[in-house]
Give the backbone structure.
Amino acid sequence: MTPDLPAVNGQQQPSNQSEGAGAMLVDLAQVRKHTVELLTALDRPPHTLRIQAGAVTVDITWPDAGTVASDTTASATIGAAGRNDASGGGGAPAPQTTADGVATACLSSPAVGVFYHAREPGADPFVSVGVLVRPGQQIGILEAMKLMMPVEADRGGRITAVLKANGEPVEYGEPLFALETEGSEG
Amino acid sequence: MFDKVLIANRGEIAMRIARACRELGVRTVAVYSTEDRDSAVVSYADEAVHIGPGPAKRSYLNIPAIVEAAKQTQAAAVHPGYGFLSEDSDFAEVCGQNGLVFIGPPPDVIAQLGDKSAARRLMAAAGLPILPGSHEPLRSPDEARDIVDRVGLPVIVKAVAGGGGRGMKVVYDPAEVLSACELVSSEAQSLFGDCRLYLERYLPTARHVEVQVVCDSYGNAIHLGTRDCSVQRRHQKLLEESPAPLLPEEMAAQMGESSAAGAKAAGYVGVGTFEFLVDPDSNFYLMEVNCRIQVEHPVTELVTGIDLVQEQLRIAAGGRLTVEQGEVSSRGVALECRINVEDPDRSFSPSPGRIESFVLPGGPFVRVDTHGYPGYRMPAIYDPLIAKVIAWAPTRDQAIARMRRALDEFQAAGPGIHTTAGFLRRVLADGEFRSGSHDTGLVSRLLEGASPA
C-alpha cells in the first residue's frame, strides 16, 4: 500500500496556511470528516490532496495525470460522489496508508436497512469520533424488516468520522464509519 | 398505474422489465449484487440499490434486502422476473404485508401450483388431462412400486417442489425405482428443502408444447396460443417458437381453452404458462403450471402483438384485460434462440469472462433481448444466458432463414468466451427441425451424431 500515498496538506498542519488565525476558526473535525468522505468516494488513491478550508479549495492529483479535479466548493465535490459508486465494492475498501503508518479504512454496512447509532432513542451511541474499536465490537444497529441486527466492526482502529446519520437508510457495503488503523496493516 | 416499480432480478429480464416500465411512464428501481454493479440495468434504471454480495442467497434471494430496498426507494410494486423469487409464495406474501404489490399471482395460488402434486390434483379436477401416476405425494417405497405396476415403465420420478428442469429422474428398469426415488428425494431436500416425490408415466418421445395464459383479477382469463419448446438439452430449453409447428388447429384450440379454464379454476391472476407434453399420437398431458413470465415470452409477443410485461404491470395495478379471447390472433411464426455463454464442445460447460467484442444482429423483424455490451464481464455465478435473439416472418421457413441470417451476424468474443450460437445454427440447419416434426430427443441425437472437436 505504500506507493500512491495521499499527502494530506492542511489537515494536520493548519499552520501551513498563510491565512493564519482566520482558517483556524474552521472546525478541524469538520475538515477531517469531509476529507475522509472524499477519499472514500474516490475510486483510486490520489497522489496528492490539497484542502484549503477557509475559502474552501480542494485539489486532487493522481500520479498519471495533472490536476484532475479542482473545485472551489468542497461540499459539491463531496456531494457528487453518488450513492452507488461510493461503496465501491462488497466489503470495506482497502485501507490507504499515509506516510506515518496511519491507514484510513471504513466500516461498511453488512446489509440493506436503516442504520442506528444507539440501542434506543436518547441512549449514548455505540461509538463516536475518537473511540478505539476492536474487531467484533458492536458499532450500531441495522433494522431490516422490523428485525434489529447488531452491526459489528470487522476490523479495529480509531473512529475518525461518522459517515451515516442516525436513522439513515443504507445499502449493502456503504461506509458507516471511517477509521484509522495504526501501524502496519495485516 | 404504479409510480415506481422495483425490479427484483438481473440480466436480460431486468432490462426487459425496465423497458416496459419506461414505455408506461413508470419509474424503475434496479437492485444489484456486488458482482453486478457494472450491469446494464443499474445505469438504465432511475435508481439502483446495492442489496448484497454476489451469491444469490445474500442478494437476489434475500427477501429482507429487497423489501428494504423497495421501502427506501418508495417503490409501489415489485416485479420478480423469472427464477430467483418469482415463484416464492413467501416472498409474494411478505410483499403484501409490507404494502408492496407483488407482480404475479396471489401467494396461495403460487403455493398451490408450485406443489406439483397438488397442482396435478387441482388441474385434473378442472378437466385437464394429466399423465397417469400418483395423485398424492409418495408415502412409501411399496406405493412407488404399486404405481409403477399400474402405469408401466418408463416412469419419471419428480420432486413435488421441483422446477427449472431440476429434481427429476427417468426410470426404465423396475430394479431402479427405489434408488431413483432416494436420489431425487435427497436432491430435492437440498435444492428445495422439500423431499416429497411423485411419479408419472414418462414419454420417451414427446413434444414440449406450452400455452400462454393471461388473467386479470376480475375473473377474466384468455390464452395467447402455443409455443413449442422441444429443442432442449437436459430439460433446459435452447430454442422456442410460436405457434407450435404441425399441431392440428383444433387441438391447439382445445389446449388453449382448457388452459384458460384451468387458470380460472386456480384463481390465477397475471401471466402464466401451462406446460404440456404431446405424444406421437397427438394426445396432450399437462406437466405443470408456471406462475411467472417465461424466458421465451417474446415469441408470443411477436405473433400476437401483445406486450406481456406491460400486461403484467397493468393487471397488477388493478387493470382489466385489454383484449378479449375473440380479439386475439396469431400471425406468422416467431423463433427465439437462447444464446448462452457455454461451450457446446465441452458438454455445454459455462465459459464466463470478459466479452470484448459484442455485435448484435439487426435488420427487419429481428429483436434482441440482452444485458450484454462490449466490455461486459459475464459473472460465473449466475445464469449463462447472455442474449435472446428473436425473429419473426410470415412463414416458418422464412422465420428459420431470418434466424440463420441473424445468428450469422451475432458475435461475442473475448478470452475464454464460447457461446451456443454455433450449436443453434446446427439445429436450424437440421432436416428434422426444419420439417417441424422434431421432439425433445432432437438435441441428444444431434450431439450423438457429432463427436466433440
Observations:
- Residues 249-266 of chain B form the longest helix (18 residues).
- Residues 47 and 343 of chain B are 35 Å apart (CA to CA).
- The domain at 132-201 of chain B is CATH 3.30.1490.20 (Dna Ligase; domain 1).
